[in-house]
């Protein structure tokens, strides 16, 4: 798979089943995450791999956090906790801002998001399916404690990993009209439509 093929064909998996990625595949994904663009090389990110029985630790924390909210129906709590075990492996992505750094927080978080996308792309390149998902109750003490989050750290979700099940088909992904998302600055200071990109690039051509 070449680089553009990898970028254009990565999808968010609908359902992930065993087998999960091997240690070697996980190591490549984590290494790819560390190549994210990173202003002043702060490494404003870190990752926590959760798999096997350890997923129950996370599920229990989500349950405890949901119960602490109060008033949530039992099925709602169970559904939230079940997210910890719905894929063979997950990697939590943590924005780990460097205090006092002269790089704005938004830029540090952007680097962490790029690292998460690198995880997904490195998974895809190795034939591992992925889904970047929101973490249930990410600000709760219980969930923060599982990932050892300190004051300046925040969860950007987690990347679920495994084998794509064909039980639920992937929804179609329409190409985006580039004129809807991009324009070009003219020498006169105007924002002009990108007429040279009038045709959507067919992502399924890759
Ligand atoms: C920070 C972040 C959080 C996300 N959380 C969820 C989620 O909780 N549930 C979900 O189904 N998809 C989640 N997604 C995935 C998007 O829904 C998905 O990327 C989008 O539908 C486009 O699908 P594609 O990645 O296959 O192109 C999340 C994506 C990002 C970047």
What do you see in this structure?
- With 206 residues, the chain is of the alpha+beta class.
- The chain has seven helices and seven strands; from the N terminus they run H-E-H-E-H-H-E-H-E-H-E-H-E-E.
- The chain has two domains: 3-168, 3-Layer(aba) Sandwich (NADH Oxidase), CATH 3.40.109; 174-206, no CATH class.
- The chain has helices spanning 3-9, 23-33, 54-69, 74-82, 105-125, 141-146, 178-181; strands spanning 16-17, 45-51, 89-96, 129-133, 153-164, 183-185, 191-193.
- The strands form two sheets. Strands 1, 2, 3, 4 and 5 form a five-stranded antiparallel β-sheet that branches.
- The longest helix is centred in the middle third of the chain and has 21 residues, at 105-125.
- The radius of gyration is 19 Å and the shape is globular.
- Bound molecules: flavin mononucleotide.
- Residues 11-12, 132-134, 156-157, 173 line the site of flavin mononucleotide.
- Flavin mononucleotide is lined by residues 11-12, 132-134, 156-157, 173.
- This is Putative NAD(P)H nitroreductase.
- It is an enzyme of class 1 (oxidoreductase).
- Residues 18-162 form the Nitroreductase domain.
Highlighted features:
206 residues; alpha+beta; NADH Oxidase; globular
């Amino acid at each position: 798979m070449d680089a553009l093929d990898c970028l254009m064909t990565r999808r968010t998996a609908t359902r992930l089943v065993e087998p999960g990625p091997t240690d070697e595949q996980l190591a490549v994904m984590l290494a790819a995450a560390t190549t994210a663009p990173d202003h002043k090389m702060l490494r404003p990110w870190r990752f926590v791999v959760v798999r096997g029985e350890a997923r129950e630790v996370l599920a229990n924390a989500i349950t405890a956090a949901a119960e602490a909210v109060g008033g949530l129906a039992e099925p709602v709590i169970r559904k939230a906790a079940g997210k910890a075990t719905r894929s063979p492996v997950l990697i939590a992505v943590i924005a780990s801002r460097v205090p006092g750094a002269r790089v704005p927080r938004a830029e540090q978080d952007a680097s962490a998001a790029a690292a998460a996308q690198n995880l997904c792309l490195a998974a895809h390149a190795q034939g591992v399916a992925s889904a970047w998902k929101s973490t249930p109750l990410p600000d709760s003490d219980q969930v923060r404690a599982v990932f050892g989050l300190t004051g300046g750290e925040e969860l950007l979700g987690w990347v679920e990993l495994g084998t794509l099940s064909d039980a639920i088909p992937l929804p179609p992904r329409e190409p985006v009209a580039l004129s809807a998302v991009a324009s070009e600055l003219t020498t006169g200071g105007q924002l002009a439509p990108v007429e040279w990109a009038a045709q959507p690039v067919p992502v399924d051509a890759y």
